[in-house]
Amino acid sequence: MRTCPTILKTELLAESGYFQIEALHLQFSNGQQRVYERLRGTGYRSVMLVAMPDPEHVLLVREYAVGVEAKVLGLPKGGAEPDEDYLQAAQRELIEEVGLRAERLTELGELTLAPGHLCHRYSVVLAEDLSPCYLPGDEPEPLDLIRLPLAQIPDLVARGELHEARAIAALFMALGALARRG
Amino acid sequence: MRTCPTILKTELLAESGYFQIEALHLQFSNGQQRVYERLRGTGYRSVMLVAMPDPEHVLLVREYAVGVEAKVLGLPKGGAEPDEDYLQAAQRELIEEVGLRAERLTELGELTLAPGHLCHRYSVVLAEDLSPCYLPGDEPEPLDLIRLPLAQIPDLVARGELHEARAIAALFMALGALARRG
After folding, report:
1. Does residue A60 carry a pLDDT above 80?
2. Do the Cβ atoms of A28 and B140 come within 8 Å?
């Protein structure tokens, strides 16, 4: 396997309140040089939650997504705060977004989105043994919550009702973890 | 279900050669106002290919990804050019990136990545009945190509070797389509 290219230079091209765009000047092992742009991450890790109220169901949220200007089905998620580890962040987001807390949290692994252009990483956390708990969150309006049989996920994806890649990938990880558990 | 918020104003905050950052001023149905930022898409649709050299295997590519500064496993992919539909773009990318052409191309559906912040959409295309074909592409170095049994995908994801959400979601769509085909 060829080695990774050398980063000759990194420069900040533009930034806004939320995003920072960087250019990286790269030299590949065959001598070719390219400039690639990427979006710098927020610095802290994000979590995605596969919350299961019972062994056959998962909780999806339906939330307005400005990138596609429509309500979109996905999973509860959020960013870890500076003093939190992933599991603490997962517990807080679950309470704020869903109104539940989990007795059992399991980190299933990490996802990237489009690693050629984005630095973002998500820790996927399986949340089980749920009980009601309330804390006000930072959402502009309460999220629509949907309790869905796990067995219906493939149909929901095939019909185009669940199209968010990071949610589908997180559910795939959870299905795999549950299958290995037996 | 509540209605989608009204977009009061859209403004371009910053741009680079590749990215454009927009701010959208929104008013939710309960009167709350928020400003959300999003990354405008490139304008043309992207395709992701699940290319199967035989009914039990899929072709993955390993490519340097500047967002995570590492080689990353994913699927062949690319953007449709202005005069191409998705299937034409899929065929061209398959030839350029993998050196194969497909007799049979099936569109499986559409994926978003993080629709709260990104406008990007990917059409997932299943490519079958493959035969050798060569066209020079625009990659700085040839991609590493990996022929993987479909049955090994869950393990690859569980071990963290395949972590790109859009690739995992596209493979999940393909596994579903193949299962429905019987």
Report:
1. yes
2. yes
Residues B134 and B69 in one domain: yes
So what's the pLDDT on residue B84?
92
Structural domain includes residue A1: no
Three state DSSP letters for A29-97: CCCCEEEEEEEECCCCCEEEEEECCECCEEEEEEEEECCCCEEEEECCEEECCCCCCHHHHHHHHHHHH
Mean pLDDT calculated for residue range A67-73? 94
pLDDT class of B43 with cuts at 50, 70, 90: low
Q: Are B150 and B173 part of one and the same domain? A: yes
CB atoms B112 and A36 under 8 Å: no
- Do A161 and A112 belong together in one domain? yes
- Quote the pLDDT of residue B1: 59
Residue B11's domain spans which residues?
A: 6-41
Give the nearest partner residue to A37 out of B19, B36, B110, using CB atoms. B19
Interface test with A, best of B32, B60, B63, B64 (most A CBs within 10 A): B64
Nearest-CA distance A36 → chain B (Å): 7
